[in-house]
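Please review this one:
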Amino acid sequence: MIFLKGYLIGLGSIVFIGPVVFTLLQATLKKGIGAGISTAVGIIVSDIVAVAICALGAIPFFEDVNNQFWLAVLGSILLCLMGVKYIFDPNIETSVGGTSSINKSDYSKFFAKGFLINFFNPSVFVYWIGFIAYAQIEYKDSVTVWLFITAILAGIFSIDIAKTLLAGKLKPFIQPTILKRIYQTIGIALLFFAAAMIYFTI
């Protein structure tokens, strides 16, 4: 029951619309399901790193408003760079019904993109600080606490893979001109999240 509870909480992350969602969508539409899965793996690895950092006693660091501000600055710069590129240089490589080629360097690039976008978002650390604190209060022994946290991670990863598969199924039916507009919309959304990240951290 504890694992199921955590897993359902992880699945509940589908209601959160953040920059990682648009990054995941763009990767899948640009290079296919493999790129989307690489991005999803990058996202979940950054979550695991965030959990590990918080668990190792770094919670006071991320609760510090000044530190949150500089994390937000780094994250917003990254989002702005990506957003501007998607708006002015969407780099459409797909044809109708076709599949873009992807090589090993692309996989590492999309992994890094997913990792960085998620890791430099201060809300990610706030999110995990909250769940770790809740688990430690609710469950007294460490094994149960980590079972609960692992279940949340598993739920989040499942949802990200589901989003990737859904976007991949839709890709062959999207015209290049529509794909260009989607990329530009994603770029605008990323600029919005960059501004919001700074605004809510100040």
Summary: The first helix runs from residue 2 to 11. Confidence is low (pLDDT under 50) at residues 94-99. The CA atoms of residues 118 and 128 lie 12 Å apart.
